Amino acid sequence: MICVPCSDKDPEEKILRDYFDYIKKIAWRYAGRGAEVEDLEQEASMGLITLARKCPPNEELSNYIRKRLPGQVRDAAHRYRYPDLHCELTEAHKEAIPAPKKHIPIDFIDLLERNFSESDLFIIWALSWGCTQKEIAEKLNKTQQSIHYRLTKIRKHLQDLLRRYWDME
């Protein structure tokens, strides 16, 4: 089927009817762990309509949709599973960070603040709140690979600090 304007009164409804089974199949594929089937069916329907509008005239609609719709539904499922986490460290967030547990001495917290830069502390804080490396990279305007590399260095440095700290006692 080549992308040509439909002669039906409502071409979007015809497209939805034609691809109804495909929409259900994709929704079931990505459902679970917080992403409901009905929500994903709705996302797939909206994605199908927008893709049908964007389809170039010389490309087959079925191939165009087959290549792009699963990715849109997958991204929607990810949004449902992991709602937008605020990974920006502001003054309000600094005040909202809970005080350390009683068994962690405050001098150890000071030791961390002295040995890590502001961006390293932000990375540690953001990871503890569930942000992904990709989200942290976006907030810091860096690549995910650079955050991964920096995180490797932070872990190594933290291991050395913990060894020194616990050996002192």
TrEMBL record:
NCBIfam families, alphabetized: sigma70-ECF
Gene3D superfamilies in alphabetical order: 1.10.1740.10
Ranges where the RNA polymerase sigma-70 region domain occurs: 17-77
Entry protein name: RNA polymerase, sigma-24 subunit, ECF subfamily
This protein's UniProt keywords: DNA-binding, Sigma factor, Transcription, Transcription regulation
Record flagged with keyword Membrane: no
Organism of derivation: Aminobacterium colombiense (strain DSM 12261 / ALA-1)
UniProt cross-references to InterPro entries, sorted A to Z: RNA_pol_sigma-70_dom (IPR014284), RNA_pol_sigma70_r2 (IPR007627), RNA_pol_sigma_r2 (IPR013325), RNA_pol_sigma_r3/r4-like (IPR013324)
GO MF annotation terms: DNA binding; sigma factor activity
Pfam family for this entry, one: Sigma70_r2
Biological process terms in GO annotation: DNA-templated transcription initiation
Highest taxon of source: Bacteria
Organism placement in taxonomy: Bacteria, Thermotogati, Synergistota, Synergistia, Synergistales
